[in-house]
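Suppose you are handed a protein chain with no further information: no name, no annotation, nothing but its sequence. What can you learn? This example shows the usual starting point.
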Amino acid sequence: MTVEKTSVLVLDCAEPMELAEFYAQLLGAEVHIGSDPDFVEIIGHRGVHLAIRRDFGYAPPSWPRPEDSQQAHLRILVAHGDMDEAEREVIGLGARPVDTKDNSGPRDVRIYSDPAGHSFSLAVSPLPPQR
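A reasonable first move is to predict its three-dimensional structure. Written in structure tokens, the prediction is:
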């Protein structure tokens, strides 16, 4: 018998509650605080489950510099017609555009850094919308 498992992407940062609120608002999820204030979970509908962990020596990643390249990033899928609105939302919540060399016209992937400096992208979902 296999033990049931689930996976959670954990992001390190200096201020877990601030980053948890950013992702909870962005993903329409809820912040769950357990007994450890240095570890906060974000849980929502459609499989959203992230965690934020305080790292007292945290330094933001510096992607896209090649000498300390990105190890992982969060990809957030949106419908094709929602990309511009999603971009306005993430910037309004405090994200910063990273890839701005071609900001004109439609693009299927746009890259940002969250308030703690982690890279994430908005990408057009390859799947048709669920009804």
